[in-house]
């Protein structure tokens, strides 16, 4: 038996955020990262370079993992200012994803935990910490758990079924 969970986390991000543009790209029968790069760079998909495709992929997954501009800059081989501009451009292209990320953090702050799509809870007591490092880590974990934890729930349910 084989199962293809291609871009599962990105698909879950689109589902959880209900970002219509991202959902539309994922439902098209084309390479999603090429299409994202095409929109982001405002060029035809056929003109997107492998480097631009990889940059789009890094930004998409970086949003899920809470990547900072310095780490993204290192991954993309650009300066930190340019990496920050890439993230802002992505956020403006997919505003509902940005809203979802903010809401996930706010909900976790309010409840003290984050839930996966399958109902599992991860408690993050440092989400309200006065220590900015601990708080930032918990904020990243809140978003990451919603997406990656939900992906895990779906894969486990599929294996059981």
Topology, please?
Layout: H1 8-17, H2 20-27, H3 32-41, H4 50-65, H5 69-76, H6 80-93, H7 95-111, E1 113-115, E2 121-123, H8 132-160
Antiparallel strand pairs: 1-2
Helix pairs in contact: 1-7, 1-8, 3-4, 5-6, 6-7, 7-8
Task: Give the termini distance in whole angstroms.
Answer: 12 Å
Q: Mind describing the biggest β-sheet?
A: 2 strands, antiparallel
What percent of residues adopt helix (DSSP H or I)?
Answer: 55-70%
Taken from the alpha-carbon principal axes, the silhouette is globular
> What is the ordering of alpha helices and beta strands?
HHHHHHHEEH
Radius of gyration: 16 Å
Total DSSP E strands:
2
Which spans of ≥5 residues are poorly predicted at pLDDT below 50? Answer: none
Assess the beta-strand content as a share of residues.
under 5%
- Widest beta sheet: strand line-up: 1-2
Structure description:
The mean pLDDT is 90. This protein is mainly alpha-helical and 161 residues long. The longest helix has 29 residues, at 132-160. 30% of the residues are buried. The protein has 8 helices and 2 strands. It has helices at 8-17, 20-27, 32-41, 50-65, 69-76, 80-93, 95-111, 132-160, and strands at residues 113-115, 121-123.
